Amino acid sequence: MDIKKAYQQQIQAEWGHLADYWYPLVETNCLAKNAMIKVKAFNFNYLVWKNKQGEVSVFLDTCCHKQAPLSQGRLLQNQLSCPYHGWQFDHQGDCSNIPYSTEPSDCDKKSLVKLGSKNSGGIIWFFPGDQALENNEKDKPTYHDWQTLTGDIVKTEEFDCDEQALIENFMDSPHTNFIHSGLIRKPKQLKTREIAIYLDAQQKLMVDHLPSDETLGPFNWFINPSKNPTHHQDMFIAPSQVDIQYQFEKDKTNFRTQIIMCPIDHNKTRAFFKISCQFRLFNPLIRLGLKLFLPLVLKQDKNIVALQFNNPSKLSQFKGDFIDYDLYSYQVKLLREQAKTKQPSLGLISSVHRTSLKL
Ligand code: FES
Ligand SMILES: [Fe+2]
User: Fold this and answer.
1) Atom from ligand 1 closest to the CA of residue 87
2) Which residues make beta-bridge pairs with 66?
3) Distance between CA atoms of 279 and 294, rounded to whole angstroms?
4) Rounded Cα distance, 136 and 51, in Å
5) Does any ligand 1 atom lie closer than 6 A to the CB of residue 95?
6) Which of 56, 123, 134, 198 could connect to 116 by a Cys-Cys bridge, CB 3.0–4.6 Å?
7) What does the pLDDT read at residue 186?
8) Hey, is 184 helix, strand or coil?
9) Nearest CA-CA partner of 246 in 209, 282, 221
10) Where are the domains of the chain?
11) What is the pLDDT of residue 163?
12) Separation CA 48–CA 25 (nearest Å)
C-alpha cells in the first residue's frame, strides 16, 4: 500500500471524519524561515517546515523509506534530509536525492505524506484528513472564522483532557462562580438569568444568556460604565470551535473570546484563543489587564479539567446526573458525533429550550 493511503486509512480509523476539517496547528511566529518544528496532533507527529522563501509545508513526520522521524533530520539548501540514510526531499515532499544510489530514477514516485496547509491570521492551519475534501467549499474552512484585528490577544494553551471535556468547560457558565470565583463573577451577587438553548440554521449550538444586568468581575466598571443590559452568548460550532460573545451596546460585540481546538491525542488538546474587545473607553488598558488576567483564568481551567478528565474513579458507563442547563453538553456530544460519522445524529434539539440559572 502506498504511504498516503496507509496514512489516510489509519487516521480515518482513529478519528473518522473529524479529521476532514481544517485545524490550527501552530502559531506562525513559532517558526523562523528555513526552519522546521515537530507538532503533535491527532496522535501523529507532523513536521512544519518553513523554507527560505517563507512558504510553509506540513508533512507527516515519517520518512517514506523506513519511517524514521524526519524532524530529527536536517535542512540542507532548501532540501530536507532524513536522519537515517540521508534521503532528501524538496518542499513538495518529493524525493530529490538518494545520496548512495547509483540509479537516478530511484527517486521517482517516492514522496512524503504532505498535508494541506494555510498560513492565515497568524496561525498555520492544516487539513489532517482526506485530501480530496480539502477544497470542499461547501464546508466553510475553519480559518475563515479566524480574522485577527490589531489589538487582538492570541494565545495557545495545552490541556490534559479531550476536546469534548474542554468544549464543555468553555461553554460552562456556572463553573465560573466556583472555579473563577472573584475573577469573572462575584459569587455573592448571584441573580437569576434567563437562558435559551437552540441550534441555528447552520447547526451552530447557541446558549443564549438573554439580556440582563450580568456583571463581569473587576472589569465591569470599565467595560460597561453605563450599566447597559448584558447580552451574553456561548456558541459551539462543530467540530471544535467555541465562540463567547458579550454585547453591552446595540449591534456591537464588545467582548469576544474565540477558541479553536485541535486534538493532540485522545487525552490532550491544544486550544488557540483569540480575544477581541471593543469598548467605548480604555481599550488599551483593558487589553493589558486581560493579558495579565487570562493566564490566571486558564490555569484554573487547566487544573479542573485535568482533574475531572483523569479522575481514576470515573465510571465509563455513567452519563452524569444533569439539570436542564446541562442539555448543551449532550448537544455538543451529538454534534461532534455527527461531524465524526457524517450521519445525522438523533436527539438534536429542533426547538428553543428555555431555562434559567443563577449567575
Ligand atoms: S528512513 Fe529515511 S532515509 Fe532511510
Ligand atoms: Fe473556566
Assistant:
1) 3
2) none
3) 18
4) 27
5) no
6) 134
7) 65
8) coil
9) 209
10) 3-131, 153-308+324-358
11) 98
12) 9
The pLDDT value recorded for residue 188 is 67
Alpha helix (H) residue ranges in the chain? 3-15, 163-171, 175-178, 220-223, 283-309, 327-341
pLDDT the model gives residue 229: 86
Query: Strand order in 123-127's β-sheet?
Result: 23-27, 123-127, 114-120, 56-60, 44-50, 35-41
Asked if domains 3-131 and 153-308+324-358 share a fold, the reply is no
Maximum Cα interatomic distance, the chain, rounded to a whole number of Å: 79
Which residues have C-beta under 5 Å from ligand 2, the single-atom ion? 301
**Measured on CA atoms in the order 289, 291, 294, 299, is the torsion positive or negative?**
negative
Atom of ligand 1 nearest to the CA of 86: 3
Please tell me the residue having the least CA distance from ligand 1 atom 4: 85
Residues counted in the chain: 359
- Torsional class of 251: left (φ above 0), alpha (ψ -120 to 50), beta (otherwise): left
Instruction: Output the pLDDT for position 206.
Output: 98
Q: What is the DSSP letter of 189?
A: G
> Among all ligands shown, which has an atom nearest to the Cα of 257?
2
Backbone angles phi and psi of 128, in degrees to 5: -75, -20
For 82, other C-beta atoms within 10 Å of its C-beta total 24
Q: Find the distance separating the first CA and the last CA of the chain, reported in whole Å.
A: 56
Ligand approaching nearest to the C-alpha of 67 = 1
Contact 52, 34 (CB under 8 A): yes
pLDDT of the residue at 187: 61
Q: What share of the chain is helix, strand, coil (3-state, %, to 5)?
A: 30, 30, 40
In this structure, which topology does domain 153-308+324-358 adopt according to CATH?
A: Naphthalene 1,2-dioxygenase Alpha Subunit; Chain A, domain 1 (3.90.380)
Question: What is the per-residue pLDDT for 134?
Answer: 83
CATH code of 3-131, in short, is: 2.102.10.10
Cβ–ligand 1 contact at 80 (below 6 Å): no
Instruction: Count Cα neighbours of 94 within 13 Å in the Cβ-side half-sphere.
Output: 7
CA distance 316 to 209: 32
